[in-house]
Amino acid sequence: PVEEIQTQQHFDAQKFREQAENARYSFKAAVADSVNDNTQIRQETRDGLKLRGLYSYSDGYFRRTVHYVADEHGYRVVKEENEPIGTGPRINPTGKVDVSTHVAGSSLEYTIKGENLPPSKH
């Protein structure tokens, strides 16, 4: 039984490695929220064992963007940007929220008006 478990573990590891080597995808998602004065962006591209991406957000004080890679050497931040943008979030109940996603050649975009959101608890 121990040999069977080791054989199965080796097979599983090999299968996982093959799947990872063949993985390919690209996506981007973004939210631009002028109601609560924040933005969020995430994008990533994978080609086999190499992955490259970024995430970014703003909160009314700063816009932070982190660029990263992941490969056979692990996950690494390759660039960070921190930009002061204001003295805090500016709440705008009549603003709008734009949401977009792009995955595998398909896109979805929509907008929500602030007047259609439940009241804020700020």
TrEMBL record:
InterPro entries: Insect_cuticle. GO terms for molecular function: structural constituent of cuticle. Pfam families: Chitin_bind_4. This is Uncharacterized protein.
